Amino acid sequence: MRPVWKIRVLGAIAGISSLWLSGAVQAAPSHPIRQGITCPDQLTDLMPLLLRDLPSYANRVNQNAYALDGVSDTPGYVLVAGPPDYRALRLDSERLPAVALPDDRSSSSPPQIFFTTLERQYVSGQAVKLQHYHWLFLTQTEGYGWQLVLLFSAIGEYPVQQLTSAPQDANQGVIAQAIRLWLRDCQAGAVEGNP
Which residues have a Cβ under 8 Å from the Cβ of 119 and sit 6 or more positions away? Predict the structure, then answer.
């Protein structure tokens, strides 16, 4: 014969189950930790949000790439992204790859945004900080929101603000992939609003 307390517990479980199945007990409404926003139409509203999240997106892309390649080296990390500069910068065409760049800020040219990232890499077990300079070209498309058109990047020393390499096509690099992922999430409403 079963003890009385076991019968009461089993009866309580059966009662709760029947209430749950009948719909009398409903789950508490979900409250996401972060409230998503509508992806901004204005570039000046979009870029501070993108640059705020860029280090974490870039670090995930970088970690995933290292994990897939099975490389034992320690990957570098993006520590911070600097503020955007919306002025069209004249780029030295002799130092750039042969890609048609917009010469002006006409409505047909994609907007140009200049920003920097501070990154830490490990060379022979020693941490080295590098400043990366990025020239980003975005366009706004109907139905798909903002899209990356071009990204050029160059490396410089930190804290000295001087380029040590010519700008290179970085459309397949970590930063470009991170930007594409962030723009996809922004379009899906999965990005937090306050920069």
Answer: 76, 77, 78, 79, 129, 130, 131, 132
Contact predicate 111/84, CB 8 Å: no
Chain segment 7-62, per-residue pLDDT in tens:
554 555 555 455 444 544 444 445 555 566 889 999 999 999 999 999 999 999 99
pLDDT at 173: 93
Mean pLDDT of the chain: 78
Q: Angle of helix 43-69 relative to helix 174-187, nearest 10 degrees? A: 120
Domain boundaries, the chain: 43-187
- Extract the tokens encoding 122: 């490990």
Q: Report in angstroms the alpha-carbon separations of 95 from 7, 63, 98, 148, 154.
A: 82, 30, 9, 22, 11
Identify any residues that bridge with 116 across adjacent strands, giving them in sequence order. 133
Beta bridge partners of 123: 126
Q: What are the pLDDT digits (tens) for 57-90?
A: 999 999 887 766 665 566 789 999 999 999 876 6
Rounded CA-CA distance 63/155 in Å is 20
